[in-house]
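Q: what sequence does this backbone want?
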C-alpha cells in the first residue's frame, strides 16, 4: 500500500469532497438544459487550465503545472479542439480572433483576481494542484473543472438548442449554463 505524506493526508478529504460535489453539480447543469454540450465542458477545462497557469506563474509552481499538463495532455488537447470547433461554428471567419481574444481575456481576468487577492492568492490557489494530483481520469478532470468556481471573462452560449447569443459586458463567475459573448 502507498504511504501518503502528511500534506497528502490533509488534502485527500478535500479532493474527495470536490469530486463528490462534482457528482452533484453535473446533473444539475444537465437538468438546466445545457450541461451536455461539448463546448460547455471545453470552456470549463480551459478555464481551469488557465487558472492553473496563472497560479503557476504567480506562485513559482511551473513544475506542478507541467505535471498537470503531462498527466492530462490528451484531455486538454481534446477540449482545445472542441473549443476551436465552437469558435469556428459560432464566429466563422473571425473565429481565430475571437478565440485569441477569449484566451487573452481569460488570463487577464484571472490575473486581476490574483493581484486583488495579494499575498493570500498563492495560499488559496496552490491547493488546486494537490487536489488535481488525486484525479485519476479525464472524466474526473472534467467534473472537477465544472465544480470549481473558475472566473471567466464573459459567458458563452453553449447549448445545442440554437438559442441566440446574449451580450454580457462584465466578467462573469462561471456557474451558469448559458454563456454569452462580451
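A:
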Amino acid at each position: 500500500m502507498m504511504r501518503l505524506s502528511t500534506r497528502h493526508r490533509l488534502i485527500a478529504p478535500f479532493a474527495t469532497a470536490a469530486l463528490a460535489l462534482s457528482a452533484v453539480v453535473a446533473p444539475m447543469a444537465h437538468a438546466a438544459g445545457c450541461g451536455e454540450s461539448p463546448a460547455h465542458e471545453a470552456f470549463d477545462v480551459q478555464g481551469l487550465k488557465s487558472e492553473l497557469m496563472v497560479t503557476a506563474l504567480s506562485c513559482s509552481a511551473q513544475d506542478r503545472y507541467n505535471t498537470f499538463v503531462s498527466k492530462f495532455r490528451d484531455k486538454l488537447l481534446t477540449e482545445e479542439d472542441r473549443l476551436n470547433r465552437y469558435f469556428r461554428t459560432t464566429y466563422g471567419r473571425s473565429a481565430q480572433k475571437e478565440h485569441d481574444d477569449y484566451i487573452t481575456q481569460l488570463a487577464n481576468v484571472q490575473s486581476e483576481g490574483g493581484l486583488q487577492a495579494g499575498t493570500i492568492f498563492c495560499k488559496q490557489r496552490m491547493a488546486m494542484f494537490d487536489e488535481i494530483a488525486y484525479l485519476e481520469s479525464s472524466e474526473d478532470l472534467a467534473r472537477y473543472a465544472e465544480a470549481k468556481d473558475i472566473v471567466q471573462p464573459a459567458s458563452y452560449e453553449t447549448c445545442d438548442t440554437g438559442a441566440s447569443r446574449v451580450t454580457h459586458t462584465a466578467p462573469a463567475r462561471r456557474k451558469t449554463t448559458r454563456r454569452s459573448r462580451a
